[in-house]
Design a protein that fits this description.
This protein folds into two domains: 49 residues, Up-down Bundle (Single alpha-helices involved in coiled-coils or other helix-helix interfaces); 102 residues, AhpD-like. It has 186 residues and is mainly alpha-helical. The mean pLDDT is 97. It is globular and about 50 Å long. The two termini are 14 Å apart. The chain contains nine helices and no strands. Helix 3 packs across helix 9, helix 4 runs parallel beside helix 7 and helix 7 crosses helix 9.
Length: 186
C-alpha cells in the first residue's frame, strides 16, 4: 500500500445521506458489505453515481471474456502498484479462471515465456498503454487476430478505467479489507 492510512476515510453507514444510501444499496444487497472503495467515493455522491455506470460497463458488460478482462485489470493494477485494486481483482480473477500461477506471472508481464500469444499481447498492450498511452501498431495487429473492433476498444477502456481507479485508490489511501489478497501473498 502506498499509504498506511486513508487520506479520505471511508464513510460508515450511519454517515450516509439518502442519496448515498440509494447509490450503495444494490452493492450492499449483492455483496453484504460495501467495500472501502465505494464508501470512500461516497464523499462525492455525484461522482460515485456517474463513475459506477462506466465501471459497471467495463466490469460486467464488456465484450471481452472475463478472464482476459481480469488479465488486463491485474496487470494495470500491478504496474500502478495499486495493492487494493490488485487484491480485489485477484479474487475476481480466480473466479474467471485465472490460476494462482498465472496471477503470480502477471507481475512478470508479457515477457514470461509461459504465456500464450493472446495473453502475451494483452499484457503487452497494457504495458504500452501504461508507458506511452498508446498501443503500438505491432501489438494492435497481433490483437486484431483475436478481437473485433468493439473488443479492441474494450481493451483500451478497461486498462484506462483501472489506471484511473488505481490512481484514485493510491492517492486517497483506500485500505484493503481484511482477508483480501496482497502483493506479498499472491
Amino acid at each position: 500500500m502506498k499509504l498506511d492510512t486513508p487520506r479520505v476515510a471511508p464513510l460508515q453507514a450511519d454517515q450516509w445521506n439518502d442519496t448515498v444510501r440509494e447509490i450503495l444499496r444494490p452493492i450492499k444487497d449483492q455483496q453484504g458489505e460495501v467495500p472501502n472503495i465505494f464508501r470512500t467515493l461516497a464523499h462525492h455522491p455525484n461522482l460515485l453515481r456517474r463513475w459506477l455506470v462506466f465501471g459497471n460497463h467495463v466490469l460486467f458488460k464488456s465484450t471481452l471474456p472475463a478472464r482476459e478482462r481480469e488479465l488486463l485489470i491485474l496487470r494495470i493494477g500491478w504496474l500502478c502498484q495499486a495493492e487494493y485494486e490488485w487484491g480485489q481483482h485477484v479474487r475476481i480473477g480466480r473466479q474467471t479462471g485465472l490460476t494462482n500461477e498465472e496471477i503470480r506471472r502477471i507481475k512478470t508481464g508479457p515477457d514470461a515465456p509461459e504465456w500464450n500469444e493472446r495473453d502475451r499481447l494483452l499484457l503487452k498492450a497494457t504495458d504500452e498503454l501504461h508507458q506511452d498511452a498508446h498501443i503500438s501498431d505491432a501489438t494492435w495487429q497481433g490483437l486484431s487476430k483475436y478481437y473485433n473492433t468493439q473488443e479492441l476498444m474494450d481493451v483500451v477502456f478497461a486498462v484506462g478505467q483501472y489506471n484511473l481507479v488505481s490512481m484514485a485508490l493510491n492517492t486517497l489511501g483506500v485500505q484493503l479489507e481484511e482477508g483480501v489478497p496482497t502483493f506479498a501473498n499472491t
